[in-house]
Amino acid sequence: MGGKKISERSIKKKSGPTHPHSRRATQLARVAHRKDKLNQAKSVRNRSSNAKVDRLSTLVLMLPDDIDALPDLASVHSFVAENFLTRHEDELQELKSERRPGRPPHKRELELKEIIAKEQQEYSEGFEIPDLTSVTNVKLLRDWQGDPQALPLFRMVRISAKYPEQCKLMHPGNHKLLQIEFKQQNEATAADSTSEMDTTDSTNVQERPDFQRVGEFAQMG
Fold this sequence. Notes:
The chain has helices at residues 8-12, 23-47, 51-62, 73-84, 89-98, 107-125, 135-143, 176-195, 203-207; strands spanning 127-130, 156-159, 166-171, 212-213.
């Protein structure tokens, strides 16, 4: 998921026709697909004023359709940093380019800057998101219609850009399938701990009690 983020504007700057099977055509298709995902998330936001609904629906809609879940915590950070936190950049750049020199920023431009700054700060200090490494959790989110009453069903975790190798379980999820999964994983962890000595250095964890070590809950890392 690494690499420079490609926008529709940067692709269209290149001259010449676009061959249907060229790299440029693939990039344009990928950008169009991303815009479609964002439009789907926007339609959900229009039906709800719940900020948590907005975040969860946007995150799950931006996940690639061909994966069941993200493989590990590092992938979660890459996905959040490169996709979710940058989702307003194209619109912001477009508003800036349309503004005449010397004119004050448009209201929407100021709103986007505020959203971006707020989310970047939250991501640095502690960002609450659904557990995107759980296949069960991702499937439940994809089947979800955006009802705020269903939010307690999902497993929620907290990650931080400051401590990318750590995370914290905020809510295990009330859905029966998640409870079964969580119980099985806890039992497996307990069985492993009886047969192997834990040599993990927990010094930093004790200094930062708000975050748990990776591996202290299901599938994160």
